[in-house]
Amino acid sequence: MTGQRAKFRRAVPDDADTLWSLYLCGDRDELAWRLAGADMERSTVYHVVELDSEVAAVFALTELGRLRPGSPRRVLLHEIKLKPSFRGRNVPEDVFTWLAQTIGAGGETDLIVLAPPVENPPLMADRGMVKAYHVFKWPASAEGVPS
């Protein structure tokens, strides 16, 4: 480990090939289009984590707004992908530290994280995060909506 701190930046269309190589699914052109902000879901922003001048990870943040007046702002963390060669280098911990410092996660902002279905992932538990929701998915179908 070099000791270099992780750098965070908003993903740009030129990152599409690199990020697609982390996701390994979907359409590269659509990803570039999304990174350019051309879609209607402008509340979702992809961020790149660089370490040693190389893309180490990518994640997306979606602004959910407030549940009711006076409640904390809610942000969803999802689409987290870590390049395998950066495992064991504290990149996920750096992401949570950046989120606390940048958007106030754990302070004035509720952070909701879509994580694998593991009971109390250590990274979450170590930060005092608690299981708060059951997430259900109604998957998209190639045949469309059932009648």
The Cα radius of gyration reads 16 Å
Overall geometry: globular
| Major sheet summary line | 5 strands, mixed
**Order of helices and strands, N to C?**
EHHEEEHEH
Low-confidence stretches: none
Mean pLDDT: 82
Strands of the biggest beta sheet: in what spatial order?
Answer: 1-2-3-4-5
The percent range for strand residues is 25-35%
CA(first)-CA(last) distance:
55 Å
Helix content: 10-25%
> Strand pairing plus helix content: what structural class?
alpha+beta
Number of strands: 5
Short description:
This protein has 147 residues and is an alpha+beta fold. It is 23% helix and 27% strand.
Report on this model:
The protein is α+β, with helices and mostly antiparallel strands and 147 residues long. The protein has helices at 16-23, 28-35, 91-103, 122-126, and strands at 7-10, 44-51, 54-66, 73-82, 109-113. The protein contains 4 helices and 5 strands, in the order βααβββαβα. It has a 5-stranded mixed beta sheet with strand order 1-2-3-4-5, with helices on both faces. α3 (91-103) links the parallel β4 and β5 (109-113). α1 packs across α2 (28-35).
What tags apply to this protein structure?
147 residues, alpha+beta, five-stranded mixed β-sheet
Question: What is the secondary structure topology, with strand pairs?
Answer:
Layout: E1 7-10, H1 16-23, H2 28-35, E2 44-51, E3 54-66, E4 73-82, H3 91-103, E5 109-113, H4 122-126
Parallel strand pairs: 4-5
Antiparallel strand pairs: 1-2, 2-3, 3-4
Helix pairs in contact: 1-2
